[in-house]
Design the sequence.
């Protein structure tokens, strides 16, 4: 009876270990890779940001767009609409940057005499 329990425990351990062993020569693919491209154009007003997926690490070089609802999809960087969206998002980011800098400067806050903390 003890031999059967040992055999069962050994098989369970072996199956758990085999799940974590990667085949020789395999390369893990990061979660931010494009495996395929979207087949139709998404409305431009839904897209809020993008990032590039590198062909040196990922199977495909692509553009990962993020929507307002935080959904992600991949666009083919050779398509005209993908390039247009990237340019517009870059322009939006450049115009937003100077405003953020001026708003981040903070003045001392007047408080009670015991509170001399500045923000």
Sequence:
């Amino acid at each position: 009876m003890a031999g059967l329990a040992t055999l069962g425990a050994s098989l369970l351990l072996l199956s758990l270990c085999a799940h974590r062993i990667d085949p020789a020569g395999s390369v893990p693919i990061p979660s931010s890779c494009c495996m395929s491209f979207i087949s139709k154009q998404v409305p431009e007003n839904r897209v809020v940001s993008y990032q590039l997926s590198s062909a040196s690490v990922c199977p495909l070089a692509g553009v990962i767009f993020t929507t307002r609802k935080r959904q992600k999809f991949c666009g083919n960087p050779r398509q005209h609409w993908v390039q247009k969206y990237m340019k517009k998002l870059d322009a939006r980011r450049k115009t937003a940057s100077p405003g953020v800098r001026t708003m981040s400067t903070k003045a001392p806050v007047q408080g009670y005499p015991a509170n001399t903390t500045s923000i």
About this structure: Residues 54 and 60 are 7 Å apart (CA to CA). The radius of gyration is 26 Å.
